[in-house]
Amino acid sequence: MKLENDKAGQEIYTFMFMDGIVFKVKDDGEIIKKTAYVVLGVNIDGFKEVLGIYRWGMSSKMCKQ
Predict the structure, then answer these.
(1) Secondary structure of the chain: what % helix, strand, coil (to 5)?
(2) Domain count, the chain
(3) Which of 11, 32, 46, 54 to pair with 61, CA 20 to 30 A apart?
(4) Please, are residues 36 and 23 in contact by the beta-carbon 8 Å criterion?
(5) What is the DSSP string of 18-63?
(6) In terms of domain of life, where is this protein from (predicted)?
């Protein structure tokens, strides 16, 4: 997995985890879903590091199809 503009390329990680949470927000009168993703890496010393936090949105109309 390649992470842009983050420190993932600077160190070796034995494990990587990705998790996300979905929020429903109102934008211009329309309910849309926004997802926040967190990418964690465990380095060779066993320490967890946050490698990045990303967000992504999708309209509710697209989700119903």
Answers:
(1) 15, 65, 25
(2) 1
(3) 54
(4) yes
(5) EEEEEEEEEETTEEEEEEEEEEEEEETTS-EEEEEEEEEEEEHHHH
(6) Bacteria
